[in-house]
Amino acid sequence: MGLRKPRSEFKLQSEVPASKDDVDNSDEPVATGRRPRHRFSSVQKKYILFVVSIAGLLPMFVSGTFVPSIPQVSKDIHSTDVAVSLAVSLSIFATAIGSLFWASYSTVYGRRLIYLCGAPFLCIGSLGVAASSSLLPLLLWRFIQAFGCAGGLSLGAGVIGDIFELEERGTAIGVFFGAVLLGPALAPLAGGTTSQYFSWRHIHLAFAVWGFLQFLLIYFTFPETSHLHHEDVTESTAHKGARLVWINPFKCLGLLRSPNIFAITLHSAFALLTDFVLLIPLAHTIGARYHITNEALIGACFLPNGIGNFQITVGAPMAGRLSDITVKEWRKKRHGVWVPEDRLRKTWIGALVLCPLSIAVSGLLTTFVDGPLGLGLNLFCLFCNGAGVDFVMNPIVSYTVDLTQSQGAELLAAENAVRSLVVALGSAIVLPSIEHIGVAWTNGIAALLVWFSYG
User: What's residue 381's pLDDT?
Assistant: First the structure.
């Protein structure tokens, strides 16, 4: 079909014509990704999806449990909330670097080995965070901790691209994100409750145990899924694979040279930023405004946002299935012509409505509406924002994997790096911004960024 390109390059296509057989079976997108060889049964695919979902959930827990514990951490290490909140930005930056690093090496060594290599970093970093007694060691170990688990999202999406067909992939991504986004629903509550009634250090000891158990699960039960790795390994290449090969992880960023890819990446970054603008200062905005000082209750205030993420993708994964249905409908209308951008048609639900309106309204409510009414409406805004972010992210991730099956992990890692950079910078300035111009203006600026980037 004239679609095959060298592995180092891919080109977006606005239309991909297909024969009747191709309409039913073709899964070869623009990059040189090879079609799944049907090596895995339906039961095996479900189990693999279960394992990668657990691995993808971990970085969300590592990130989500820390934010509500910031007040206790700052007291314990004799620092300030603003200084300790830098650990959030630093861990996001570490996730960006780690995602690029692990995704690049997964192309050479396969997904399974790279999952195994990340676990020791996570375990050591978690133990270091738990033992930290001052700010600088805390920041160092948080970086190592986040670096170790950073491959969970990009490698998971890469594995899904390896084993699922085109018209199943959106649903699989929906299930994956449904599990992953249990993190925003449960992690803040777990972090806040542990901080209030035990110690914030205990949760990081638990992460070390989680990392060790995940290592054992992958080592004993997880197969290699990468087709390039699986099919190209001969006795000669296997012998060469014993040597460490240096790969420039930043080379992945070259995959963003397409204006289309860069535009949707930047837009998804601003949509995701709304989550962090709402959640990172929550103890200082909703907590302070409505006189909530208990860490466990502050953690519970994060639940609506996570439930908004979770509700949209669990059970009948709405966002994923909606993108699959859209692809099928438009492919049928064009008599078998596949346009990858069809997956993006429903992003307007989150991009124009749920994300920007929820954060803008939340800022106004926090500023002007007192009492239980203001708190209740703010929690509803958090729910809407969580749902909106998923309506943006799910189709974009599925679209990314569609385009570059063999390089899906690398491209997703590059997109995650840009998103992480935007979120890290935004997270670092959100508290100072609220202190200087107020929560309404800060949230309003975040909403405008989402609207303008969609255009």
Answer: 92
